[in-house]
């Protein structure tokens, strides 16, 4: 028996990741429902929140939004979409697990990391597409950034970084739950409280103090704050915070989430027996 | 015997309290089909998962093509192909895209993956459907595509987990033909099956597995000989059952068995029609008219009944001894 152990090189792992990414993206294109529902739902949120709540909430929003709720809402919704969209990572993984696709992958001489890397990267690309679409619809119905195009682009990047980190949380949940139907509900358990008990839809200062303590300090509020700062200017950030500070804090959150959940998901993947 | 291409020794795997594999030993030489025969839950899939590096056993060793799968799984994966119980193909990709993707993951270059995919799709008879999305395929086509994907990397050993379960009889024959072709082309195949006729038809050697143990091993002919050939099966009125059992006990060296769920009495019939005639004559003597009587080929159920011996002591002991004998012969 040979004492050496074959290893997959980094270059091979990258090549494998690209193969898997391409396969996942092709699925997105071939299964139009995936993309349609991934886009219709956020656009619906955008329209409903803007036209239903906009008038009532408009008065409570900071002046930086130039008096328009849509300006306040769009940066928040981009993060909501990123958070909901990350759930697709869990669903895609459980589906592959249950169809034996993961078994096939694991029996091949490919890099094991490529399955998760390819999945999260293809979901990042998909999320980028949905975020861009959201922004376009937002622009169409009156959203205007108050800073400049760089602030706008910076905001998109912060949103994507956060979406990517969340994808790994969702990958962990998917590998934990394993069953696609159960996963469908499971992914909303962390997402719903985080999205609604945040500054996504309304400023946090009207919430009861116990809830506000949570809402003010959780990553979604921080990230939404960073986006608003970048897109609407320093006055849109919550009192006592700076744009740069919130951007750094959001990126720190994304890095921290990634640092915890990426190794966790990889370990779960290695141990997963479908 | 030539160097075994697949060897498992003392493989044990628990899932919680359940002992899925309870010290499995198998080995076989290159160039043959080895059939692993057993009912649901016998441990067939678990053993395949160990041999294909998907699962680490609690103890034991396993080699595929001379590579220790536990020590060097990556190298082992370059030499093996797996087609699992579900056709692990992607519905929304075309047949060709599916096979090419697996080719790429076997580290073929993109040009080679393309030409090799075309080659296996042709071999598998899916060239015409190759550019259609897989969701338009029938169940049999999906299985064939899965098989194509499993051989695109030119594996030395192909593992097929119940390749014909749940598909129509026509496709089953197609897959049998493909499997036979592959072996003729030099591939070694380990396939699992619940059907004795499949093992009989395809396998050069068969291991019978039950409750995580290989309980009998040999060529299909040897296995059927252990069973003593065909089976006479009859039903009688409830009132006549006990006297029938007594009467049949003297027909040959086997004891009749009664299966309460089907209400059928079975008797191993080494001489087929002769035994049947004798049974009929015996029943006539004791004036019992059977409601139904037939001679049939042994099934997997019979193999199990006979080897695990849940009902008849003698039939259980005999094959077990025969297996032992064969094992020691083989190791010489």
Layout of SSEs?
The complex is a heterodimer of chains A (274) and B (332).
Chain A: H1 10-30, H2 32-58, H3 69-98, H4 101-106, H5 113-140, H6 149-177, H7 180-186, H8 188-196, H9 209-217, H10 219-232, H11 243-271
Chain B: E1 6-15, E2 18-28, E3 33-37, H1 44-51, E4 59-64, E5 67-68, H2 73-79, E6 80-83, H3 95-105, H4 110-123, H5 139-151, E7 157-161, H6 169-184, E8 188-193, H7 196-202, E9 205-210, E10 213-218, H8 220-227, E11 230-235, H9 241-248, E12 257-259, E13 264-269, H10 273-285, E14 292-296, H11 300-308, H12 313-331
Parallel strand pairs in B: 3-8, 3-9, 6-7, 7-8
Antiparallel strand pairs in B: 1-2, 1-4, 4-5, 9-10, 11-13, 11-14, 12-13
The name of the CATH topology of the largest domain in chain B is: Rossmann fold
Query: SSE order of chain A, as H and E?
Result: HHHHHHHHHHH
Number of helices of chain B: 12
Number-wise, the strands of chain B total 14
Helix content of chain A: over 70%
Largest sheet of chain B: 6 strands, mixed
Which ranges of chain B are low-confidence, i.e. pLDDT below 50, for 5 or more consecutive residues? 310-332
Per CATH, the architecture of the largest domain in chain B is 3-Layer(aba) Sandwich
**Order of strands side by side in the largest beta sheet of chain B?**
6-7-8-3-9-10
List unreliable stretches of 5+ residues of chain A: none
**Beta-strand percentage of chain A?**
under 5%
């Amino acid at each position: 028996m040979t004492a050496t152990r074959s290893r997959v090189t980094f270059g091979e792992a990258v090549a494998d990741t690209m193969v898997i990414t391409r396969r996942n993206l092709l699925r997105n294109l071939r299964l139009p429902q995936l993309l349609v529902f991934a886009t219709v739902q956020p656009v619906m949120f955008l329209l409903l929140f803007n036209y239903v709540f906009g008038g009532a909430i408009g008065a409570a929003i900071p002046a930086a939004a130039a008096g328009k709720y849509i300006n306040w809402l769009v940066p928040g919704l981009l993060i909501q979409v990123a958070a909901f969209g990350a759930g697709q990572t869990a669903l895609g993984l459980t589906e592959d697990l249950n169809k034996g696709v993961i078994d096939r992958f694991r029996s091949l001489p490919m890099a094991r990391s490529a399955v998760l890397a390819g999945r999260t990267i293809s979901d990042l690309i998909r999320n980028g597409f949905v975020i861009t679409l959201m922004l376009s619809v937002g622009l169409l119905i009156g959203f205007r950034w108050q800073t400049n195009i760089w602030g706008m682009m910076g905001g998109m990047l912060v949103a994507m970084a956060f979406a990517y980190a969340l994808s790994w949380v969702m990958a962990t949940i998917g590998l934990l739950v394993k069953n696609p139907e159960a996963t469908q509900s499971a992914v909303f358990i962390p997402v719903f409280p985080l999205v609604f008990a945040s500054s996504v839809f309304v400023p946090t200062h009207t919430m009861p103090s116990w809830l506000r303590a949570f809402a003010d300090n959780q990553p979604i509020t921080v990230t939404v704050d960073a986006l608003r700062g970048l897109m609407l200017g320093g006055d849109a950030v919550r009192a006592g915070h700076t744009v740069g500070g919130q951007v750094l804090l959001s990126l720190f959150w994304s890095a921290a989430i990634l640092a915890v959940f990426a190794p966790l998901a990889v370990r779960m993947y290695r141990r997963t027996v479908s | 015997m030539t160097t075994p291409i697949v060897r498992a020794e003392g493989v044990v795997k628990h899932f919680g309290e359940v002992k899925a594999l309870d010290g499995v030993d198998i080995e076989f030489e290159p160039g043959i089909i080895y059939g692993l025969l057993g009912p649901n839950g016998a441990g067939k899939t678990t053993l395949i998962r160990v041999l294909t590096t998907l699962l680490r056993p609690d103890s034991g060793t396993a080699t595929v093509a001379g590579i220790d799968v536990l020590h060097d799984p990556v190298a082992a994966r370059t030499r093996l192909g797996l087609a699992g119980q579900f056709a692990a193909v992607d519905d929304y990709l075309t047949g060709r895209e599916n096979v090419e993707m697996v080719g790429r993951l076997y580290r073929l270059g993109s040009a080679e993956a393309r030409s090799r995919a075309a080659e296996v799709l042709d071999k598998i008879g899916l060239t015409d459907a190759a550019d259609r999305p897989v969701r338009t395929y029938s169940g049999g086509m999906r299985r064939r595509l899965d098989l194509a994907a499993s051989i695109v990397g030119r594996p030395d050993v192909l593992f097929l987990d119940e390749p014909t379960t749940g598909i129509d009889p026509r496709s089953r024959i197609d897959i049998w033909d493909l499997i036979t072709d592959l072996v003729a082309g030099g591939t070694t195949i380990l396939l699992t099956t619940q059907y004795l006729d499949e093992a009989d038809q395809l396998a050069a050697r068969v291991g019978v597995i039950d409750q995580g143990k290989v309980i009998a091993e040999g060529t299909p002919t040897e296995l059927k000989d252990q069973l003593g050939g065909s089976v006479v099966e009859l039903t009688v009125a409830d009132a006549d059952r006990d006297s029938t059992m007594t009467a049949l006990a003297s027909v040959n060296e086997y004891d009749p068995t009664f299966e309460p769920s089907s209400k059928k009495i079975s008797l191993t019939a080494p001489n087929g029609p002769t035994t049947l005639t004798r049974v009929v004559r015996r029943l006539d003597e004791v004036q019992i008219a059977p409601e139904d009587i037939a001679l049939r080929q042994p099934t997997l159920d019979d193999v199990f009944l006979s080897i695990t011996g849940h009902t008849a002591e003698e039939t259980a002991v005999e094959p077990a001894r025969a297996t032992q004998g064969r094992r020691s012969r083989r190791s010489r």
